[in-house]
Amino acid sequence: MKTRIITGIWAGAIFLGLLYLGGLPFLAFMAILTLIGYTEMVKMRQLSFKSIPVLLFGAGTLLPFISLYEQASDQLLSLGLTPIAWGMLIVLIGLFWTVFSKNMFTFDDVAFLLLTAVYVGVGFASFTYIRLLENGLIFSLLIILLIWFTDSGAYFVGKSLGKTKLWPAISPNKTVEGALGGVVLAILLGVVFELIHPTVGMGTVVLLALIVAVVGQLGDLVQSAYKRHYGVKDSGALLPGHGGILDRFDSMIIVFTVLIVLGIFG
After folding, report:
1. Which residues is 239 bridged to in the sheet?
2. Residues 218/254, Cβ–Cβ less than 8 Å
3. Over the stretch 147-157, which tens digit does the pLDDT of each residue have?
4. Which residue spans traverse the membrane (predicted)?
């Protein structure tokens, strides 16, 4: 517990400090987390980092950050091809590699790397995009608080009132009562936040809290599902007492992506 608390303090201080700074420092931080998250997924799959497709798809996770860099720095990057074209080239090289490797590197491996690159790269880039908005700091803080309150509500309500298992095959400790408790607490937090600091309007904040609470818990279940599939307890060991980067950001990267897709902060 002591290790967990100490890690939480220094990691939280770094994260919140860079979140406050925004701009290029936060963008660089998110890019680093993207590469770490990609590494954690590749290790779970037990793929070799000496593999050319693994390295290329790792670089591909940063493609969504190109336009964000140009936005934050007001400088255009001359890359020869568009990010989409680079992404397609990487996919094609991965497919060609199944032939060059005589199927030692399989189609399933290509599919895994592509899904991982999109899941991690777009997730952290979506977080960065919202932070770079004009009111991005307050938007980001509101979303993060909603996620944290959802987790807290789900935990404490589940501990005290939880009886009905939510999805025992994936996460045996989660309950329906806990999930509902997380949703309720997130909505209450959103209402209080809007009363103290009017941000998006009362109707919008209630809808936002509902989306964040539901999607955030689904994001957590997604991580539980793939960790169970690969037979690991944590995605990594970078954060003592907390696991890996994806263990800490699993809900956030899903939530921020969904909010962008729905156009709430688009």
Report:
1. 243
2. yes
3. 999 999 999 99
4. 6-39, 51-69, 75-98, 110-130, 136-157, 178-196, 202-224, 245-265
The average confidence (pLDDT) of the chain is 92
CA dihedral 31, 33, 36, 37 (to 10 degrees): -110
Residue 133 per-residue DSSP state: S
Determine the pLDDT at residue 243: 85
Write out the two tokens for 124: 């952290």
What is the mean predicted confidence (pLDDT) over 211-224?
94
Structure tokens at 27: 């963008």
Check: CB of residue 140 under 8 Å from CB of residue 19: yes
Task: Determine the length of the chain.
Answer: 266
Neighbours of 51 (CB within 10 A): 18
Q: What does the pLDDT read at residue 2? A: 73
**Structural contact between residues 216 and 255, judged by C-beta atoms closer than 8 angstroms:** yes
Pairwise CA distance, residues 26 & 229, whole Å: 32
> Does the pLDDT value for residue 266 go beyond 70?
no
